[in-house]
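debug: dumping io for the single-chain case to check the tokenizer round-trip. Nothing else runs in this session.
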Amino acid sequence: MAFGTPASKRKEGTGNSQDVDCARPRAEGSAPYRSRTLIDKVLISLRAAFSFPVMLVAWIALIVVRLAERNVLDLDLWWHLRNAQFLFANHQLPNIDTYSFTVAGRPWMNYEWLGEIPYYLAWRAFGLEGIQILMLLVLESIFFGVLLLCYQRSHHIKASVLACCFAVLLATVNFGPRTILFGYACLVVLLAILERYRSKGRGPLWVLPVLFCVWINTHGSWSLGIIVFVIFIISGLADGQWGNVRANRWSPRQLRWLLLSFGVSCGTLFVNPYGYRLVTYPLDMAFRQHLNIASIIEWQSIDFHSLRGKVVLVLLAGLFCSALATRHQWKLSDLILVLFSFYSGLTYERFLFLAGIIVAPIVAEMLYFVPPYRPEIDKRWLNAAIIVGVLGIVWYWFPRPAQLEKQVAEQFPAEVLPYLESHELSGNMLNFYNWGGYLGWKDPRLKVFVDSRVDIYEYAGVFGDYVRLQNLEEPRCILDKYQIKYILFPRKQPLVQMLKTESNWRVLFTGQISILLERVGPIPSNTEQKCED
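debug: decoded output
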């Protein structure tokens, strides 16, 4: 028997089949086998984690962080926090205005209520740092999704990274702690599902009704998603080739499922606290809020004399030249979406983010001439060093609480708050538009003249009067109309410079960025009709 064979003979082999068993690998369940398997999995994971594509993704993350570091603050942030605070304290949404004295008690619809909650929870957990972290996480998620969209179309990681950088540069207009970021995250999910359905003939269309239900309660950009969905469906009703443009008709089964998903998605839009009023709000903005669209910077057309405008011009020229040089074959839906997104972005600057998301996957396809990624020449030790360096830079440059408070003090009148707390103002105060939300958040007792909830102020005519004040159109009459006794404005505003020369106004407080004026003497009454005349 083999068990009795001397060790020396067993080493030489006796021809017995049981001798061969000694040289066989151990069973898969044995400890050494499990150890080798675990080590192999770890090595494979490390090789993947420190690959060239991951290093490129790290660079995208760094670019986003660096471009967003000065955008931690937004005019709307403060009243969003206040709305969410009211919701958590009272378990209901604010339905009337309680923040101002000009439109107090008027009905108001909080159309972004769901998008406010994450920012409020982040603030409660970590203060301004929490808001910054949340903003960066949402931005990084959006652009990681855009990168996946690009790779889904091109299967070329280098081209996808370049196209994603294209999207980042266009999107900087909306960098900041804004609810619209959640809307663009929903748009990325929508495009991913629709692209999967187009390329494979199947996809999780059942997700879309849920997506639109969340989207409409988060931000008004859901209407852009509906337009994208409609373009996607309509472009598949044609079949043919027109030069470099081609279209493929949906099969009856595909079209049936698309229409069913679209119909149910439209139905879920009405699952919100305000019913049809929230569904029709985009139309209200388009046809009733003319002053809002005409006065707010992000609703204005792109200025090609500005730095952002020049960057957009260069990117557009590059896209146009690439399309000509590569003789890109356009899908009909892609062509319509690109035209729609660039029309929107050039007409209203805030929609450049939309253009970046939609155009990036198409740009990735055009960049097929970029040399492909070659795993066999990957230098993982160098990639690892770069990734660690990028993470170190992100950590080093991430703003600390003191830096965030300094940013606040540079943009908002934090310097005047101690004075307001120690001196009770007995009268109406005209505040600078950009500061209304901040003042109300910091001192809820203070009733402001205006904040960045433009809709309710425009309906009441208050925002129109504020614009007239800024333009020095009958300023004394408007100040009398609203019984203004105090004015809190930036120091160099023309209205301030004019009133400082008048004997019935005196300076109560002067800071680095703000000045507080008080009216001396009685305030004329019954001036509303005179101002309207």
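debug: round-trip ok. The first helix runs from residue 7 to 12.
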